[in-house]
Amino acid sequence: MAELTKELSQMAHPNEQAPEPEASGAAAAGAPETAAPTVIVDDLHIVYRVYGAASAAQKGNAANALMRIIKRQGRPQMKEVHAVKGVSFIARHGDAIGIIGRNGSGKSTLLRAIAGLLPPHKGSVYTDGQPSLLGVNAALMKELTGERNIVLGCYAMGMSPTQVRERYEEIVEFSGIGEFVQFPMSTYSSGMGARLRFAIASAKAHNVLLIDEALATGDRDFKRKSQERIHQMRKEAGTVFLVAHNLDVIEETCNRVIWLHKGQIKMDGDPATVLAAYNS
Ligand SMILES: Nc1ncnc2c1ncn2[C@@H]1O[C@H](COP(=O)(O)OP(=O)(O)OP(=O)(O)O)[C@@H](O)[C@H]1O
């Protein structure tokens, strides 16, 4: 608690997404402890409510269905999925944090919660500025051309028309989509879409950039370019979170790895140590 209070007071503009920090086991690795914190996650719990669903024990069983009819109960209405269970950590300027874990371990949920897209069931997320989430499904419009998406995407990130004009060619060049920039995004392969999204999102310096698997679909050349850009963004004093199943990308890009298992942190530390434990 004392550590968290101190860290919070260091944050320039904490973007408080939930009240009252509570007790914490937050630990830092990666960037030096003197670097300013950019994200504080304190005992975070995220619960999804799925309406119209039922647990395996409640449904698909004739005896259960008969009992519900006898008791005049309707279909079970709601199921809760406790996707993140008491996660705490502190991220700092200059950190590139890889988040690894099996399918369904809570990686994407954690990123979406840091981005402020999911309300905490319990606990808090504090961020320095508005984090930008760059996901496989990031909101570009499929029916518009790459060109229109670049312009709109840059405006959405708060760039001025002059800044958009200055950066436009570089974004097209970086994405490598060539003449397809004049075609609607619905004609793009998933790799081309992912490259364009990354090129747009990384055209601006972000305090906190959250990347969800966006590098997974790029080819080798693009992966190398995007890794270089992530390194550059870290130098510009930002913090990058990266969810990827490709552990090579994590190892080459990140200075810290958080391993999630069933919604909890199993390990948080330097990539060599965490990846060795994860692979064993
Ligand atoms: N919108 C949702 N509604 C209900 N449950 C969800 C929803 N999104 C995710 N979940 C559940 O939350 C848990 C964590 O999912 P999440 O997508 O965060 O995991 P992940 O580690 O990113 O998985 P993957 O590696 O497969 O992408 C899973 O049990 C998943 O079924």
TrEMBL record:
Q: Recorded GO terms, molecular function?
A: ATP binding
Record keyword ATP-binding present:
yes
Q: Which SUPFAM superfamilies match?
A: P-loop containing nucleoside triphosphate hydrolases
Where would I find the ABC transporter domain in this sequence?
64-280
Establish whether keyword ATP-binding is in the entry. yes
Which residues fall in a compositionally biased region of kind Low complexity?
18-31
Matching CDD domains, A to Z? ABC_KpsT_Wzt
Give the record's keywords alphabetically.
ATP-binding, Nucleotide-binding, Transport
Source domain of life? Bacteria
Q: Where is this region: Disordered?
A: 1-31
Q: Which family does it belong to?
A: Belongs to the ABC transporter superfamily.
Protein name (Swiss-Prot/TrEMBL): ABC transporter ATP-binding protein
The species is Sphaerisporangium flaviroseum
Q: What is the lineage of its organism?
A: Bacteria, Bacillati, Actinomycetota, Actinomycetes, Streptosporangiales
